[in-house]
UniProtKB/TrEMBL annotation, chain A:
Major place of residence: membrane
UniProt-listed Gene3D superfamilies: MetI-like (1.10.3720.10)
Name of the protein in question: Nitrate/sulfonate/bicarbonate transporter permease
Pfam families per UniProt: BPD_transp_1
PROSITE patterns, A to Z: ABC_TM1
TM region(s), chain numbering: 6-30, 42-60, 66-84, 96-116, 122-140, 173-195, 224-245
Family annotation (PANTHER family): ABC TRANSPORTER PERMEASE PROTEIN, ALKANE SULFONATE ABC TRANSPORTER-RELATED, MEMBRANE SUBUNIT
ABC transmembrane type-1 domain sequence ranges: 58-242
Membrane topology: Multi-pass membrane protein
Classification via InterPro entries: MetI-like, MetI-like_sf
The entry's keywords: Cell membrane, Membrane, Transmembrane, Transmembrane helix, Transport
Automatic annotation (TrEMBL), chain B:
InterPro entries: AAA+_ATPase, ABC_transporter-like_ATP-bd, ABC_transporter-like_CS, ABC_transporter_ATP-bind, P-loop_NTPase
Family to which the UniProt record says this protein belongs: Belongs to the ABC transporter superfamily.
GO molecular function: ATP binding
Presence of keyword Transport: yes
Keywords from the UniProt entry: ATP-binding, Nucleotide-binding, Transport
Keyword Zinc on entry: no
PROSITE patterns: ABC_TRANSPORTER_1, ABC_TRANSPORTER_2
Domain of life: Bacteria
UniProt protein name: Nitrate/sulfonate/bicarbonate transporter ATP-binding protein
Residue ranges of domain ABC transporter in the record: 6-239
C-alpha cells in the first residue's frame, strides 16, 4: 500500500506527464508550427538555449519580489499596530487602506513609475502595494483575536500594556499573520511581474516580464513559454517556502 | 478577630442594557471556607464571581477583600487566583511557561519561577509534562494545568467558574477529589461556581443556592467540614441525603425563578 503522502505527490505528477505526452503528440502528429503552439520539447530546448539569460532575468524579478515582500510585511505590520491603537485612528485610516486595495495596480503603476525615477525602486513600490493589504487585514484581525478569558486573566494579574502586547497580543496574532504572509508572498511575485510589464524596462536590469514581452515581439513563442515556466516554478517554490514557514511557526498549536 | 477573606454587602449589578443581573447580594467568605454558588442559568453566579475578580464593576453595594480594597489584592497574604470554565492556556507556550505566567507577569526571577511552576505541576500530578504543549494534552490534563497556574501564586482565595463543566464524569470526580484535598487539607479558601448538584454536595462547606430574574441568593446550606471527602463519601447515605436536600432547595429556586419570569410576562 502506498502512503497517502506519496500518493498525493505521485497522482498529480503522473497526470502532468500524461498531459505533456498528449501535448507533445498532438504537436508532432499535426505538425503544429511552434509560433502557434510549441511542443514541450521545443520549450525545453528554448529553456536550455536561453537558460542563463532567463535565469538572470528571474533573479532580477525575485529581487524585486523579496524587497516588496519585506516592505509589505514591515509596512503592513506597522499599519496594523497603528490601526489597533484606537477606534478613531482605524475609522480615519481604514477607508484609505480599502481604497488602496480596490484600485487595480495596473492602473496606478504608470503613475508610480513616473513619480519614482529609480526603476527597481518603483517596481518594488508597485509590488509592495499589491502585497500589503493581506498583511494589514490579517495582522489587524489577528491582534483582535485574543481569547477574551486570557485577556481577562492578564487584566486580573495587573499585566502592563507592554506585557499584554508581547505575551498575549503578538502570539495570538501569529496564526492570522502567517496566513497573511503566505498570501502576500504570492502577491509580491504577481505585483513584481505586473509592474515590470507596465514599466517595460529593457536592458541589463530587465526581469522575466520583459523577457516575455520581448519574446512576444520576436514571435519566439517557445522562449515565452520557457519564461512562463520559470515564473510558475518560482511561484511554487515561494508558496511552498511560505507554507513551511507557517507550519514551522505554528507547529505546537494543533 | 481578623477580617473575612471576602465581604459583600448589598452588591448589585445592572447591565448597560437595563437588565438587572444581580439584586443586592450579601456574602461573607471566611478563611478555609469552600463556598459554592449554584443555581439555574441566568442566576448571576458567574457575574458574581467576575465582580469579585474585579472583571466587572458593581452598580451598587460595598465589597472588600481581606478588609481592604482591590488595589491591595495581590500582595502577600491577599493573593487571588481565577480558574475559568475552559483551561484558557496559551497554545503557543509549553506547560511550564503557562504555569509560570503569573510569576512572569510579577517579574519573579526565572529560576525561582521555574522551581515553583514545577512544584505546582507536581501538586496536580503533572510534573512529567512540563515541556509539552497544551495541544498534546487531554481536556482533564489541561484543566489540571490551569489549576496549577492558579496554585503557583500560592493564592489565599481561589475563584473557580464552572471549571470542570466540559469534562466527563469520571475525570470530573477525580478533579473534585483533588480540589477537596487542596481545600480541606491545605486550607485553600475557595469560591466555586457550578451547575452540577453532586459537585456542590461533594465539595462545599457552604452552598449558596441562587435564583434568577433577578439573580439573588435564595438559600444557604452548610455542610460539615470535618467529613473526609473521598470516593467513600460519594457512595455514602450521608452524601445522598445532602444531595437530596440540595436538590429540593435548587428545585425551589428554579420554580421561583420561573414564577418571576411569568409574572413579568
Amino acid at each position: 500500500m502506498m502512503s497517502s503522502r506519496t500518493f498525493s505527490l505521485l497522482a498529480p505528477v503522473t497526470l502532468g506527464i500524461i498531459i505533456l505526452g498528449i501535448w507533445e503528440g498532438i504537436c508532432r502528429f499535426w505538425h503544429i508550427p511552434p509560433y502557434l503552439m510549441p511542443s514541450p520539447s521545443a520549450i525545453w530546448r528554448a529553456l536550455m538555449l536561453d537558460g542563463v539569460a532567463l535565469l538572470h532575468a528571474l533573479l532580477i524579478t525575485l529581487e524585486i519580489t523579496f524587497a516588496a515582500l519585506i516592505a509589505a510585511v514591515v509596512g503592513g505590520v506597522l499599519v496594523a499596530f497603528l490601526l489597533v491603537q484606537s477606534p478613531l485612528i482605524e475609522r480615519c485610516l481604514m477607508p484609505y487602506v480599502v481604497i488602496m486595495q480596490v484600485t487595480p495596480i495596473v492602473a496606478i503603476a504608470p503613475l508610480i513609475i513616473i513619480l519614482i525615477h529609480n526603476t527597481p525602486l518603483a517596481l518594488t513600490a508597485c509590488a509592495a502595494l499589491v502585497a500589503i493589504f493581506p498583511v494589514i487585514s490579517n495582522t489587524l484581525q489577528g491582534l483582535r483575536s485574543v481569547d477574551p478569558d486570557l485577556a481577562a486573566y492578564f487584566q486580573m494579574h495587573k499585566a502592563s500594556r507592554l506585557q499584554t502586547l508581547s505575551r498575549l497580543r503578538i502570539p495570538s496574532a501569529l496564526p492570522m499573520f502567517m496566513a497573511g504572509l503566505r498570501i502576500a508572498t504570492g502577491l509580491s511575485l504577481v505585483g513584481a511581474i505586473v509592474a515590470e510589464f507596465v514599466a517595460g524596462t529593457g536592458g541589463n536590469s530587465a526581469g522575466l516580464a520583459y523577457q516575455i514581452l520581448q519574446s512576444g515581439f520576436q514571435m519566439d513563442i517557445p522562449r515565452m513559454f520557457a519564461a512562463l515556466f520559470l515564473i510558475t516554478v518560482a511561484g511554487l517554490v515561494l508558496y511552498a517556502a511560505a507554507a513551511s514557514l507557517q507550519r514551522f511557526a505554528l507547529r505546537h498549536r494543533s | 478577630m481578623s477580617s473575612p477573606v471576602l465581604s459583600l454587602a448589598g452588591i448589585e449589578k445592572v447591565f448597560p442594557n437595563g437588565v438587572r443581573g444581580l439584586s443586592p447580594v450579601d456574602l461573607t467568605v471566611e478563611k478555609g471556607d469552600f463556598v459554592t454558588l449554584i443555581g439555574p442559568s441566568g442566576c448571576g453566579k458567574s457575574t458574581l464571581l467576575k465582580l469579585i475578580a474585579n472583571l466587572h464593576t458593581p452598580s451598587g453595594g460595598k465589597m472588600s477583600w481581606w478588609g481592604g480594597n482591590f488595589g491591595d489584592v495581590g500582595r502577600k497574604g491577599r493573593r487571588m487566583a481565577f480558574v475559568f470554565q475552559d483551561a484558557t492556556l496559551m497554545p503557543w507556550a509549553t506547560i511550564a511557561k503557562n504555569v509560570r505566567l503569573p510569576l512572569d507577569l510579577e517579574k519573579v526571577d526565572r529560576a525561582t519561577a521555574d522551581k515553583r511552576a514545577l512544584a505546582a505541576l507536581e501538586r496536580v500530578g503533572l510534573g512529567h509534562v512540563t515541556e509539552h504543549y497544551p495541544a498534546q494534552l487531554s481536556g482533564g490534563m489541561k484543566m489540571r494545568v490551569s489549576i496549577a497556574r492558579a496554585l503557583v501564586t500560592e493564592p489565599d482565595l481561589l475563584l473557580m467558574d464552572e471549571p470542570f463543566g466540559a469534562l466527563d464524569e469520571f475525570t470530573r470526580n477525580r478533579l473534585d477529589e483533588e480540589m477537596a484535598r487542596l481545600c480541606y487539607e491545605d486550607g485553600l479558601t475557595t469560591l466555586f461556581v457550578t451547575h452540577a448538584l453532586h459537585e456542590a454536595a461533594f465539595l462545599s462547606s457552604r452552598v449558596m443556592v441562587m435564583a434568577a430574574r433577578p439573580g439573588r441568593i435564595h438559600a444557604q446550606y452548610e455542610i460539615d467540614r470535618s467529613i473526609l471527602r473521598n470516593e467513600e463519601f460519594r457512595l455514602s447515605d450521608q452524601f445522598a441525603g445532602i444531595s437530596r436536600e440540595l436538590a429540593i432547595l435548587l428545585e425551589d429556586a428554579s420554580r421561583e425563578s420561573m414564577i418571576q419570569q411569568e409574572m413579568r410576562a
